Amino acid sequence: MNECVLDFSIAQFSENVPLVPFSGLMDSPSGGSFHRGGPVWGDWEIAGRKRYLNRGNPADDKPDLLREPQDKLGGLSAWIGPQFPHFGHLIADAATRFLATSKQSGIDTFLIGDKEDNQYGLLRPTTRSVLDWFDIDTSRVRVANRPTTSEVLVTLPQSEQRDRIGPCPKYLDLLTQHQHSKFWNHSGAIFQKCFVSRAGMPAHIAGESYLEAVFSELGFQIIRPETMSLSDQLWIYVNANELVFTEGSALHSLQLLGSVRARVWVINRRPNGRLGDHLFSPRVSAIDYLEAEIGLIHGCRLSGEPAPETGLAIPTSHGLSKCLSIISGKNVAINSQEYEKAIKTDVEIWLKHETKQKRYGHSSYLSTLMKSVKNAGLEGLSLRF
Prior knowledge:
The protein has two domains: 12-155, no CATH class; 193-297 and 309-347, Rossmann fold (3-Layer(aba) Sandwich). It has ten helices and 15 strands. The protein has helices spanning 87-93, 98-102, 125-133, 169-183, 208-217, 230-239, 277-280, 317-328, 336-354, 365-375; strands spanning 12-25, 35-39, 53-54, 57-58, 71-82, 109-113, 141-144, 148-155, 193-196, 221-223, 242-246, 263-267, 286-290, 295-297, 312-314. Strand 3 and strand 4 form a beta hairpin. It is globular and about 65 Å long. Residues 87-253 form the Glycosyltransferase 61 catalytic domain. GO terms for molecular function: glycosyltransferase activity. InterPro entries: Glyco_transf_61_cat.
């Protein structure tokens, strides 16, 4: 399936559609479903782009209609996807419906899915910020956290998909027009060169606080996106000439924008990856993914399978120096003493965080962790629990 030849703005209307709370939402690591909930389409097998797709194929599981809905929504409702509890997935897997849906006339209620344990039907602050960006009135957004029937439900397809399917020019043009309308009277800091840091997040590159100091010396402004409003982040991205990210969710913020003039560098946390290259390349002037000779340490999932997605990436000083030299265009030396101190601190913080997770109690956790340490060639690493 090629999104570029399938119009992202084609609305599909369905009548008397039952919707159920999500019984699985990003639960793959614990053996559950990544996407099970929302509309129970009567034509499930041929529902096509009404469903959640990835790589051009359906990637959702049919929801179970365990009890008949007691509530019925009259008028026209719009399905905009689930409220993913992860910023990157919210944008890459749900918000790709938001812009086209916001242009649809006559909508009374916007429906966003969630689990039943969100008993008060609350919107997460990150969800609210993305809805606000697309001018979707949150007073008309309802969290579908219990069985409901929609009298008439409209669905706009995903305009791009997390894996393989990128945006078409028409969608990027519409996004560019939207960002211009949002920023025509915006005022805020403008940085020519910016390092977007994950140092304040549980999963980041070990020693990233040291990396912040190095980038500052190289003339980069440092931002931590979680400390800023979404609009201020996007304002910086739109106006920068050069952006450096460490691989992670902040990159997906670029999907909220159309044309961005910046040259983008991504320092990988997971070796040999190109996270979202098909999503970002059409938007920016250039993008390169750099390898910092990462050793990845991690435990296991609740299922006992390895969990590299929860791990800590530890670059070598040589690998990090190489990345910095490529970005700056000059040789950048690493202060090994300061760098090793920052790594030690980050390893201790990461281990403390891991011991509080349910997966830490699995019988295979410690053996998986020690195996990953060995595979990464980090046997000399001091691990204190």
